[in-house]
Write a structure and sequence with these properties.
Blueprint: E1 6-12, H1 20-36, E2 39-45, E3 61-64, H2 73-86, E4 90-93, H3 95-107, E5 114-116, E6 125-130, E7 139-144, H4 149-154, E8 158-162, E9 167-169, E10 182-187, E11 193-198, E12 204-207, H5 222-237
Parallel strand pairs: 1-2, 1-3, 3-4, 4-12, 5-6
Antiparallel strand pairs: 6-9, 7-8, 7-10, 10-11, 11-12
Helix pairs in contact: 2-3
């Protein structure tokens, strides 16, 4: 296999046959692979193995997948930070979205107490908190911010997406994001945050909804297509190995 023809995607999470998203993600990537005529190689990085960089730098894209609480929150946060700081295309869905926010609050905004109420119910700063209504098995409309990367990926200002979660971004802390590089790029019809992105990154997107679930219907999701394209462009931009 010629590695110039391969886009390598690292999946950050604790692979489990009980998590539907973990079965959906390889299918979703295969659908995009077939459409683009591009080989996609998938490698799992278990969170409790991420005590150091541990091979992340060889990936063309990193996807922090659903299935939290993770075996190691610190491992997941370390991988997210690596993608953010090293400019590696990143997608975080459901738990990945939640932890991308925690990582940003801690390491960019300096709010080290930012935490997840599921894994730490006594958190003093529960940036991720229980939803007022569960979104497990729910489908709903998302309003996309004009000019955002997410809206560009969808080719419009509205999308209908599926969820499987009980926790989301705590609106109490929304003002902390104002003026920062991490912007809200998607909300539901009540204005609750459902997608975020980094403007100064080649591709860094987090969504509370789970675009990978569309693969069970054989549908190529536009956001996953955009992520793979960004990862492929990143691969091609790398200097050739000596």
């Amino acid at each position: 296999m010629d590695m110039d023809d391969v886009t390598q995607i690292g999946l950050i999470g604790d692979c489990s046959p009980e998590v539907r998203a973990h079965a959906a993600i390889p299918l979703a990537l295969q659908l995009v692979s077939s459409e683009l005529g591009r080989i996609i190689s998938v490698r799992w990085f278990l969170t409790d193995s991420l005590r150091a960089e541990g091979g992340l730098s060889s990936m063309d894209g990193l996807w922090c997948v659903p299935g939290s609480p993770y075996a190691s929150m610190e491992g997941a946060l370390r991988a997210i930070r690596f993608a953010r700081e090293e400019g590696i295309p990143f997608l975080g869905t459901c738990g990945g979205f939640q932890h991308a926010l925690i990582e940003y609050f801690r390491n960019v905004l300096g709010l080290t107490g930012a935490d997840h109420a599921e894994s730490n119910p006594q958190a003093v700063m529960p940036v991720i908190a229980p939803l007022s209504c569960s979104l497990v098995g729910v489908t709903g409309d998302i309003l996309l911010s004009p000019g955002s990367r997410v809206a560009e990926s969808f080719g419009g200002s509205r999308a209908r997406e599926s969820y499987h979660c009980n926790y989301g971004f705590n609106a109490t802390y929304l003002s902390r994001l104002q003026g920062s590089a991490l912007s809200v790029s998607g909300v539901d019809e009540e204005g609750a945050v459902r997608a975020v992105e980094l403007a100064d990154h080649r591709f860094f997107v987090g969504t509370l909804f789970q675009p990978e679930l569309s693969a069970f219907s054989g549908v190529i999701h536009p956001l996953i297509r955009a992520f793979v394209r960004a990862a492929t462009e990143f691969h091609r931009s790398r200097p050739e190995a000596p």
